[in-house]
């Protein structure tokens, strides 16, 4: 008996400290992430359209109704345009920077630090700077990039005040901020490809381009996917950058800004919660398949 | 190892404090203020969005009077930066919902406060109006427009005018426009003449400045009584008169230059002679006139001039900054003492010349208000009154948000029918 109790104690000693260590964060995440998510979804299914009323359960009514609003369509379209320009821009630029690094550049460490540095800055600070760089002032009032364009004789542009392509301009600071990070991911990917594989391809008579086309790029697929997931979810919930550059204006409205306006200007908690739910769901569309894929991959290996 | 633990705990504690105090900094503990510790100075937390040049100076002038009159109270400035108070209002909202209101907060007098009133966040201030005889000190029409169900919830400290047409006299002369246009038709003709000369006829800023322009065009096209009736129960936003007014607005907007980042660069285009006209509130006067640290340092009547916006002569479209008494204020007596200063002749005469606005009281010292402010004071006592839409007098916050949404969509689509439908829906959903 005594021996058995002793071994139970010994076993408890093995797992108890670990459990105690993670319990606070499990509870905190349970309450502040999943609990709040659940609360948000339940609020989105009520008719609490002002702060004083109680709110009754109305099911998916709010989720359907919001598609009647022209502003919702506009903000969704803006989010899609922003996502396409931002994700493609950051992937291509990040890949290209990593490619240059990988070709063996002198002082690589310095360049790596320079390109990675923007990621250390908050989107708000980036936004404040780019708000000036992308100022819409033209001719003698031009500042920032428009001044530069004026000097070198390129046509000036209204940037994020352009009715049709303003959201594409809004993605430029985001590309600037995140492409260094994508570069770091790709660089790690490049370095992870054994030199023997390339050598083998070269021996088989592959051109240098062919080595990239048939050996390097396929092996970079997992890295590309990770980068896509990270950029995609940042993009869909973008808020701080837009607020810092343009403020809450319809011309650059995205779902997250619309959510702020719904809560703090319309004083409509249910509508804000509905938009928040859509943002969470759209991010989940990116993240969940990725999680399933990576779990499966782990099992396979 | 232990030190790292300590650092972690301290960090968490600091973060927790910062979250609770709302960034109050070292002067945050308003909690102490409620305790009447013998002789200790009590703190009064005054929440506003006055941090810019001019407005912050005015607040400081009022603070000095307050501390002189109340030696046992200290003034705690809880101002949150950001034009027109967007960020301040969002923070205020969270403070009110958490039942930790500031002792007193700034808000635009009128319908903007309705949300707070209906949520039961504000104390009725009728007792203060009776005690200080404020109903005699403020114009009767002002008292009527800020009353809700016979009760008054705020003390207006100043009056701004929103229907001002700012223009550049030399650009007008060059384009052959003799004087400031008096009607909408004259205005459109003048815009056309300026356009022919290759200058920007009308400068415009971010989206809220377009709503600001629209309220002036509605007032100028509909007339004061019809405009005021739009905000009463049963108003008809779908009428043919409103259609005509919105068509005028669309026509005027077709002369607008490229949108600038905010109202200041748009106003500067007029002062610097690139644009002829700009419709903006009278805070633009301070920006034009003040020395270069905060303003443009321009000469009034030569570099820039003003007139009531077209069709609105004889009407003062007003807005007012006011202070309130939230329910559950930590230091209620201190807040009341602050409201007394804000309501007093002395307080208003200290604040307004610096802020570039006129006092709400009728008995202010007229000698302190010169140049534009002299004109404004004269008009304030003689004109009919109309409430501003964009600046919180005529409509509640949700109603304004709906109007801004319709106007924002209109800038993209230029669709007058959709704009009118948006305005009709906004009124139907939010009629007070």
TrEMBL record, chain A:
InterPro entries: ABC_transporter_permease (IPR051393), MetI-like (IPR000515), MetI-like_sf (IPR035906)
Top-level division of the source organism's lineage: Bacteria
Location in or out of the cell: Cell membrane
Membrane topology: Multi-pass membrane protein
Pfam families attached to this UniProt entry: BPD_transp_1 (PF00528)
Ranges that cross the membrane: 12-37, 79-101, 113-133, 165-190, 211-234, 275-293
Principal place of residence: membrane
Annotated ABC transmembrane type-1 domain residues: 76-292
Coiled coil: none
UniProt keyword list: Cell membrane, Membrane, Transmembrane, Transmembrane helix, Transport
UniProt record similarity statement: Belongs to the binding-protein-dependent transport system permease family.
The protein, known as: Glucose/mannose transport system permease protein
Organism from which the protein derives: Nonomuraea africana
Automatic annotation (TrEMBL), chain B:
Keyword Signal: yes
Signal peptide coordinates: 1-27
InterPro entries reported in the protein's UniProt record: Bact_solute-bd_prot1, SBP
UniProt main location, coarse: other
Keywords tagged on the record: Signal, Transport
UniProt cross-references to Gene3D superfamilies, sorted A to Z: Periplasmic binding protein-like II
PROSITE patterns noted in UniProt: PROKAR_LIPOPROTEIN
Pfam families: SBP_bac_1
Subcellular location: Cell envelope
Protein family (similarity comment): Belongs to the bacterial solute-binding protein 1 family.
Function: Part of a binding-protein-dependent transport system for a sugar.
Official protein name in the record: Probable sugar-binding periplasmic protein
Record organism: Nonomuraea africana
């Amino acid at each position: 008996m005594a021996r058995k109790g002793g071994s139970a104690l010994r076993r408890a000693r093995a797992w108890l400290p670990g459990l105690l260590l993670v319990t606070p964060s499990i509870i905190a995440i349970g309450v502040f992430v999943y609990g709040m998510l659940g609360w948000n979804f339940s609020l989105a299914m009520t008719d609490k359209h002002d702060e004083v009323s109680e709110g009754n359960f109305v099911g998916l009514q709010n989720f359907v109704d919001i598609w009647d609003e022209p502003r919702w369509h506009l903000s969704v379209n803006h989010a899609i345009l922003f996502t396409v320009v931002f994700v493609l821009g950051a992937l291509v630029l990040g890949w290209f920077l990593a490619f240059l690094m990988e070709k063996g550049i002198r002082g690589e460490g310095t360049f790596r630090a320079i390109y990675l540095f923007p990621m250390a800055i908050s989107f708000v600070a980036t936004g404040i700077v780019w708000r000036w760089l992308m100022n819409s002032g033209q001719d003698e009032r031009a500042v920032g990039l428009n001044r530069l364009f004026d000097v070198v004789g390129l046509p000036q542009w209204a940037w994020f005040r352009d009715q049709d392509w303003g959201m594409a301009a809004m993605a430029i600071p985001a590309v600037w901020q995140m492409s260094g990070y994508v570069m770091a991911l790709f660089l790690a990917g490049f370095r992870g490809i054994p030199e023997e594989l390339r050598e083998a391809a070269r021996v088989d008579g592959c051109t240098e381009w062919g080595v990239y086309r048939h050996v390097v790029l396929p092996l970079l697929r997992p890295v590309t996917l990770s980068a896509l997931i990270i950029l995609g979810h940042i993009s869909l919930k973008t808020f701080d950058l837009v607020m810092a550059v343009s403020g809450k204006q319809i011309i650059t409205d995205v779902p997250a800004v619309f959510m702020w306006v719904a809560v703090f200007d319309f004083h409509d908690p249910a509508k804000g919660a509905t938009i928040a739910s859509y943002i969470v769901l759209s991010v989940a569309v990116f993240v969940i398949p990725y999680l399933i894929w990576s779990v499966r991959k782990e099992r396979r290996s | 190892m232990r030190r790292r633990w300590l650092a972690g705990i301290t960090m968490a504690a600091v973060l927790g404090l910062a979250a609770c105090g709302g960034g109050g900094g070292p002067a945050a503990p308003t909690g102490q203020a409620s305790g009447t510790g013998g002789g200790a100075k009590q703190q009064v937390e005054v929440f506003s969005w006055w941090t810019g040049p001019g407005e912050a100076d005015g607040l400081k002038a009022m603070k000095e009077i307050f501390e002189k009159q109340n030696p046992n109270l200290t003034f705690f400035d809880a101002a949150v930066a950001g034009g027109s108070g967007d960020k301040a209002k969002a923070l205020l909202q969270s403070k009110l919902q958490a039942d930790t209101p500031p002792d007193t907060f700034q808000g635009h007098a009128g319908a903007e406060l309705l949300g707070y009133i209906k949520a039961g966040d504000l104390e009725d201030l009728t007792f203060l109006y009776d005690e200080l005889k404020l109903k005699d000190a403020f114009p009767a029409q002002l008292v009527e427009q800020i009353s809700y169900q016979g009760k008054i919830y705020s003390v207006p400290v100043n009056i701004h005018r929103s229907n001002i047409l700012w223009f550049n006299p030399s650009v007008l002369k060059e384009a052959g426009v003799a004087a400031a246009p008096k009607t909408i038709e004259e205005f459109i003709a003048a815009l056309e003449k300026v356009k022919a000369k290759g200058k920007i006829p009308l400068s415009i800023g971010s989206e809220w400045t377009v709503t600001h322009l629209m309220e002036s065009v509605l007032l100028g096209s509909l007339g004061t009584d019809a405009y005021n009736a739009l905000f009463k129960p049963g108003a008809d936003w779908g009428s043919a008169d409103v259609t005509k007014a919105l068509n005028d607005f669309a026509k005027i907007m077709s002369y607008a230059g490229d949108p600038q980042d905010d109202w200041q660069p748009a106003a500067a285009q007029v002062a610097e002679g690139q644009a002829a006209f700009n419709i903006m509130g009278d805070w633009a006067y301070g920006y034009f006139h003040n020395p270069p640290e905060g303003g443009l340092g321009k000469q009034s009547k030569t570099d820039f001039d003003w007139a009531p916006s077209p069709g609105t002569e004889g009407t003062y479209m007003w807005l007012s900054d006011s202070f309130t008494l939230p329910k559950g204020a930590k230091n209620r007596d201190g807040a009341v003492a602050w409201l007394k200063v804000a309501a007093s002749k002395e307080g208003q005469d200290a604040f307004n010349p610096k802020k570039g606005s006129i006092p709400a009281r009728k008995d202010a010292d007229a000698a302190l208000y010169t140049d534009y402010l002299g004109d404004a004071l004269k008009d304030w006592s003689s004109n009919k009154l109309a409430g501003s839409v964009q600046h919180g007098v005529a409509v509640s916050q949700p109603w304004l948000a709906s109007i801004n949404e319709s106007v924002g969509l209109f800038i993209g689509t230029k669709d007058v029918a959709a704009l009118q439908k948006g305005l009709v829906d906004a009124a139907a959903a939010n009629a007070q």
